[in-house]
């Protein structure tokens, strides 16, 4: 049965393409949404860009007919702007009377429910608005087009029971076919069914479809960093494989996501010279209350945001403590930046760039929207490798959650692609205190 979907402004600000995501159903935009889009379009950040994009799309559709009467959409539905009259607002309970945007949207949805024989659904990312709609007898839903099922999130690993001969074949012949189907570049632990303590680590080669052994790490570790657990070994395998252009690393605090990514990037840039530069970027999203504007030039303003990255470089180069060092002593990242091998910057200025032949790490990617991650990935030029790291349980961006952030969205969309790989890291390695805190708190 055909449905009528009434959209909230935040749906369009989250996904400017939402107008066309409801198949052959009718899409209704309360007039107050146009007013709110006009207010948001002046912002310079992502919400402002999305507001302007929606306004341009509506103006384009307006050329095909009247927004009040309805404009046919390509999928078979109808897009219409609905007015909210004062007498319609007066039908709301006294607590919800007034000309607030949310109240106007509720009033339009209630009026449509009285007029239409088909189901009317209010779509909003505002939890409280959905609760109010439910209290008024309206069907209310979150916008879930770009959401993933967090409970079934792809981990990138699997255990496989095999005969002992298969493990021998893995190392003697450099690969072994498997009867079960796995995803490209999936990390596998082959377990001898006759002796469960006899195991081997492998990865499913996207080209041959066989399980192949992990590559040998450089003597002394990757940029002096040795993997401490199985997941970190798998992560290094994906990071160091030149055929994999996109790697996503997910894990709780202290599992080493950023550290292994930086170590692999340094190996590829400074040792193997496969890439011209290690480029690291982070979204500028504060945890908790922001302290306001920071003084200084762009480098000085960025220092508090990029300090977690500098800490990882100090750990790799052993430059944590400057006490007793000579006058020319510098932190681990400073010399690399002077040589042009390392660049650390915010994501604010990445739009419009082309990034060729670079090892790009995007840290804290769980704070990005799917649209922002798409913008980043489409900047990758020829020969560039992109690594996204983050923890969906540590989101500071109020516009996304664990199911709708850019990191998990990309993870799910690319898991069947031969050019992509993913690993979820579980074991904390920062310290005993950090590990227990992540578990208990």
From TrEMBL:
Keyword ATP-binding in record: yes
Protein name per UniProt: AAA family ATPase
Annotated Gene Ontology cellular component terms: cytosol
Coiled coil: 37-64
Pfam families: PhoH (PF02562), PIN_4 (PF13638)
Keywords linked to the UniProt accession: ATP-binding, Coiled coil, Nucleotide-binding
GO MF term (any one): ATP binding
InterPro entries assigned: P-loop_NTPase (IPR027417), PhoH (IPR003714), PhoH2-like (IPR051451), PIN-like_dom_sf (IPR029060), PIN_dom (IPR002716)
Similarity annotation: In the N-terminal section; belongs to the PINc/VapC protein family.
Domain PIN: 3-131
């Amino acid at each position: 049965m055909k449905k009528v979907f009434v959209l909230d402004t935040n749906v369009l600000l989250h996904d400017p393409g939402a107008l066309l995501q409801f198949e052959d159903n009718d899409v209704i935009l309360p007039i107050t949404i146009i007013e709110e889009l006009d207010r948001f379009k002046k912002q310079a950040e992502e919400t402002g860009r999305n507001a302007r994009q929606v306004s341009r799309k509506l103006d384009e559709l307006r050329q095909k007919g009247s927004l009040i009467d309805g404009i046919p959409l390509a999928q078979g539905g109808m897009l219409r702007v609905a007015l909210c009259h004062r007498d319609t607002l007066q039908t709301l309970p006294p607590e919800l009377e007034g000309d607030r945007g949310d109240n106007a949207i509720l009033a339009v949805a209630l009026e449509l429910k009285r007029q239409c024989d088909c189901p009317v659904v209010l779509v909003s990312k505002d939890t409280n608005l959905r609760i109010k709609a439910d209290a008024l007898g309206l069907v209310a839903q979150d916008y879930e087009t770009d959401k993933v099922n967090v409970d079934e999130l792809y981990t990138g690993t699997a255990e496989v029971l095999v005969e002992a001969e298969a493990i021998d074949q893995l190392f003697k012949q450099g690969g072994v076919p498997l009867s079960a189907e796995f995803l490209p570049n999936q990390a596998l632990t082959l377990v001898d069914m006759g002796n469960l303590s006899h195991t081997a680590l492998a990865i499913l080669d996207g080209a041959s479809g066989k399980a192949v052994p992990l590559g040998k790490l450089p003597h002394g570790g990757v940029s002096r960093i040795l993997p401490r657990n199985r997941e970190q070994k798998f992560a290094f395998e994906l990071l160091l494989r030149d055929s994999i252009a996109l790697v996503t690393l997910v894990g709780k605090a202290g599992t080493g996501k950023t550290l292994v990514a930086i170590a692999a990037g340094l190996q590829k840039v400074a040792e193997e010279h496969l890439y011209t530069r290690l480029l690291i970027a982070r979204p500028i999203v504060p945890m908790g209350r922001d302290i306001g504007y920071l003084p200084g030039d762009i480098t000085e303003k960025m220092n508090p945001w990029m300090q977690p990255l500098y800490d990882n470089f100090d750990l790799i180069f052993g430059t944590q403590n400057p006490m007793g060092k000579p006058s020319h002593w510098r932190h681990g990242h400073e010399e690399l930046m002077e040589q042009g091998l390392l660049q650390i910057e915010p994501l604010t200025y990445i739009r419009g760039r082309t990034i060729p032949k670079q090892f790009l790490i995007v840290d804290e990617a769980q704070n990005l929207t799917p649209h922002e991650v798409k913008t980043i990935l489409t900047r990758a030029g020829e020969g560039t490798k992109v690594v996204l790291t983050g923890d969906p349980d540590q989101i500071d961006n109020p516009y996304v959650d664990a199911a709708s952030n850019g990191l998990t969205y990309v993870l799910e969309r690319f898991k069947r692609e031969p050019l992509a790989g993913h690993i979820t890291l579980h074991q904390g390695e920062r310290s005993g205190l950090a590990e227990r805190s992540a578990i208990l708190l």
